[in-house]
Amino acid sequence: MNPLTVEWIDKASADLATAGREMRARKDPNYDAVCFHAQQCVEKLLKAALTETERDFSRTHDLNHLLDLILPMQPLWEAFRSSFQELVAYAVEYRYPGESATKEMAQTALNAAKAFSKEFSGKYQK
User: Is pTM beyond 0.85 here?
Assistant: First the structure.
């Protein structure tokens, strides 16, 4: 496996772990952070897949754009598009005043990241 792909996967795993820890926090959980790290996990896994397949991609947080780039190699990943659409806003908007995630939003985001991470792991092994 390409060493850069491994780095993307490691960063994605760290984001997923951070989201999970924050979701389990008993005192003052930061649901915005759960959503952000869930989005980042998916973004980095998509970039890992693109790196491994030697596909170029630009600096973007747009999961749908990244998904479009990898679909020729992983057409079944189209099934994740609707959950990715929900995650897109968490890359930027929820990190600033004006928007706040609820516990339910955070759980949905975390579940989406976990589901994609599981699917990704079935296709790409370190």
Answer: yes
